[in-house]
Amino acid sequence: MRNAILLTFMSFLCLSITYADRDGRGGHGRSSSDDYRYDSRPDYSSSRNLRYLTYEGGNDLQTVTLVDLEEVWVNETRQVRSTCTRQVPVTRRVCRDSRRHHHYETAEHRRRPPRRGHGRGHGRGHGHPPRQECRTETTYRTESYACYRSETVRTRRPDKRYHANVSIKFKNKTQYRYSDNRADFLVKLNRERLSLELQGQSNRGENLFFMKENLRVSQLGDLTEISGELKVLVFDKNEFLRPVRQQIDVRPEIHHGELVLKMGKVQFEKGFGVNLTLSGNYGRTLFNGQVPRDFMSIRDGRYDDESIVVIDLDRLLHGTLRRGEYLNAQLTVSLMNRNLTLLNTRHTPQLEQSVRASISVR
Fold first, then answer.
1. Cα–Cα distance measured from residue 185 to residue 204, given in angstroms and rounded to the nearest whole number
2. Pick from 138, 129, 130: which is nearest to 94 by CA?
């Protein structure tokens, strides 16, 4: 009875602890911590060429060390334990009855006359009793024993080694310099190639991550050393995409040789670019290509969410603009910098917008 009461009490205590722990996590309801489940991350602790890291907003610096091997197939001859057999001689003494001499003496007695004085039973000439002949015989038995034999196998051997010791620097470029969006990244070393992959981010905010590599590779025998920095720029998605999501207005007149564009706020000027195709009378092409940064300026607009982009066509066309001429322009505004790599590969946003306009030279 006492054991039954104790068992019932222990069961009740376990259930109470379980429900208390569940309530401490927020039960089955949705909480801020549930927006980002760390227990869903894969376990890469056993892999030396992979590293899993988490970015939790703001400016952050993390250092990773990775090791990778390049192996080759080779033929290798080695001695392996085996079981062999051999024939072992066994010697023994064997004796058998011999009757050949007994039969010979019986024949002699038949040719000779019977001796006197012998009884009737002895007069028949039975001879000597049988005798045994013994000799040594050798037989063989099979015996097993431990031995070694040669075996040729194909095996993998380390041929080259790769070692990476790099820092990953996150720089927050959002307007208010704050972001509560957490994200998971996977750093992977594949021989001499180091990569950073975005695995996912929480639902509280959406960021865009642009990476720039600044790595050094050195060779020492069969060892390749990789060092340097991976710089990651973090932008708020809505802020960053304003120039290509909002309408682009082109001023229909060129004053003082300047082509003026009005668009959404340009947050990252280093990644901003304009591709221009400009044709004049009779379809002649005046310019076709990327506008150099030296011929373009960006300033704030009348409102906080807009920017004014000015292209100096007079300098760009070397003073060949003619007053009163009408031009056709096709412009493509791009937010992608060639020196940066966008890590948001699962949901890649549209980073360009094109517009056509007819303008006159005043």
1. 17
2. 138
In this structure, what DSSP letter does residue 315 have?
H
Nearest to 264 by CA among 241, 285, 281: 241
Over 125-179, what HEC string results? Answer: CCCCCCEEEEEEEEEEEEEEEEEEEEEEEEEEEEEEEEEEEEEEEEEECCCCCCC
Other residues' Cβ atoms within 10 Å of the Cβ of residue 342: 16
Q: Which of 259, 277, 355 is nearest to 314 (CA)?
A: 259
Token digits for 351?
A: 């980073």
Tell me if 160 sits within 8 A of 70, measured CB to CB. yes
d(CA 73, CA 91): 53
Model confidence at 317: pLDDT above 90: yes
Beta bridge partners of 353: 333
Q: How far is CA 93 from CA 133, 137, 142, 307, 329, in A?
A: 11, 6, 20, 117, 119
Point out the least confidently predicted range of 176-180, 187-191, 205-209, 316-320. Answer: 176-180
Kindly list the domain boundaries of the chain, sorted by start residue. Answer: 36-73+155-236, 241-361
pLDDT at 206 over 80: yes
Asked if 189 and 164 count as a contact pair (C-beta separation under 8 A), the reply is yes
Q: How many residues does the chain have?
A: 362
In the predicted structure, residue 192 carries a pLDDT above the cut 80: yes
CA distance 98 to 133: 6
Give the whole-angstrom CA distance, residue 32 versus residue 181.
Answer: 12
Average pLDDT, the chain: 81
User: Would you say domain 241-361 falls under CATH 3.30.70?
Assistant: no
Please answer whether residues 309 and 274 qualify as being in contact, where contact means their C-beta atoms are separated by less than 8 angstroms: yes
pLDDT at 215: 95
